[in-house]
Every structure is written in structure tokens, then in C-alpha cells.
């Protein structure tokens, strides 16, 4: 995951930030100080996203990804609006999910002079592949990795239910 965040920084061109903005900015612990300065591509700076949530859902449906979960994370982080988690049946299937998303990005930019591709991490092993398409981050995992890392619980806000405590007869 950190590799995906680091790769966002590599796409930042030297001209997109004035030199004084790095020194004047009050840096805080965490990523709140970045305020969407670093993105997965230059497509975001031009006002276009690589893939919308509907396009990602269509691609995942077409490649028959299992157990697709969409988690809105816009209020938890500045670098994404949605986290999509999908399960693949095999290493080949997981790699095919990532390739289908990349192909969709290429088709969307057909005829462009310069293609902007999503950042992809984990294609070597195929157990967990992260495709960063701007505002939508797609995690394609096998069943064991999905159960082990349990990303749904990590990114889903916890609600604490407080039950009223009744005084028992012994305490009165």
C-alpha cells in the first residue's frame, strides 16, 4: 500500500508546485497536510479521472470478480473517494482483473498524444494487486489474502453502540 502512495509522488512534476509551497506549508503528522497535492496521475490535475466508480464496477462485472465491495473513504482520507475490494479465484484471475482495468483506461484515452496509466502494485505475485486510478483505488485479492488482511474492517467506520447499563437489584 505504501508503495502505491510513493508512486503517486513520482508522477508529480516539478512545475506543478512552486518552490515556496514546500517550505511554507505546515506539515503535520500523517497525510492531512498534503491536501490532494499528490495524486496518482496528472489526469487529476487536468480535471479528468482515469476511471469512474461506475466504469470500475462495469469492468469488475465483466471479468466476473467475486465479492465486490465498494467502501466510500472520502471522509477518511484526501487521496481517494472510493476503495473497491474484489476477490479473484486464482492468480491468473487476479492479474486479469488488473489488466482489464488498465485496458479500460487505455480505451478511454484512445487518440490521446500521451497516455496516463494508473499506478499498479503487486502484479509480480498476483496475490494482492492494487490499481490506483485516481479517486478510485481497486484492491484485487485472493480469498486467503482478503480474509487475512480484512480491509473492509480497516476502512469501514466503526460505530460504537452504547447499551444502557441497568442497575441490578444487588447494587441498589
Automatic annotation (TrEMBL):
Gene: LOC18609698
Species this chain originates from: Theobroma cacao
Domain of life: Eukaryota
Keyword presence, Mitochondrion: yes
Record's keyword terms, sorted: Mitochondrion
Lineage: Eukaryota, Viridiplantae, Streptophyta, Embryophyta, Tracheophyta
Family: Belongs to the Iojap/RsfS family.
Subcellular location: Mitochondrion
Chief site of localization: mitochondrion
Protein name in the entry: Protein Iojap-related, mitochondrial isoform X2
UniProt cross-references to SUPFAM superfamilies, sorted A to Z: Nucleotidyltransferase (SSF81301)
GO CC, alphabetical: mitochondrion
Amino acid at each position: 500500500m505504501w508503495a502505491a502512495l510513493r508512486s503517486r509522488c513520482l508522477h508529480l512534476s516539478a512545475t506543478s508546485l512552486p518552490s515556496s509551497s514546500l517550505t511554507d506549508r505546515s506539515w503535520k503528522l500523517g497525510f492531512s497536510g498534503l491536501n490532494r497535492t499528490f495524486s496518482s496521475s496528472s489526469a487529476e490535475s487536468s480535471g479528468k479521472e482515469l476511471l469512474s466508480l461506475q466504469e470500475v464496477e462495469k469492468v469488475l462485472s465483466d471479468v466476473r470478480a467475486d465479492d465486490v465491495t465498494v467502501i466510500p473513504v472520502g471522509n477518511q482520507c484526501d487521496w481517494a473517494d472510493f476503495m473497491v475490494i474484489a476477490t479473484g479465484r486464482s492468480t491468473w484471475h487476479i492479474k486479469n482483473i488488473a489488466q482489464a482495468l488498465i485496458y479500460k483506461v487505455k480505451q478511454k484515452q484512445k487518440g490521446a498524444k500521451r497516455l496516463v496509466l494508473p499506478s499498479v502494485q503487486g502484479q509480480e505475485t498476483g496475490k494482492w494487486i492494487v490499481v490506483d486510478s485516481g479517486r478510485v483505488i481497486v484492491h484485487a485479492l485472493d480469498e486467503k489474502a482478503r480474509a487475512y488482511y480484512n480491509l473492509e474492517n480497516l476502512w469501514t467506520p466503526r460505530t460504537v453502540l452504547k447499551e444502557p447499563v441497568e442497575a441490578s437489584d444487588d447494587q441498589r
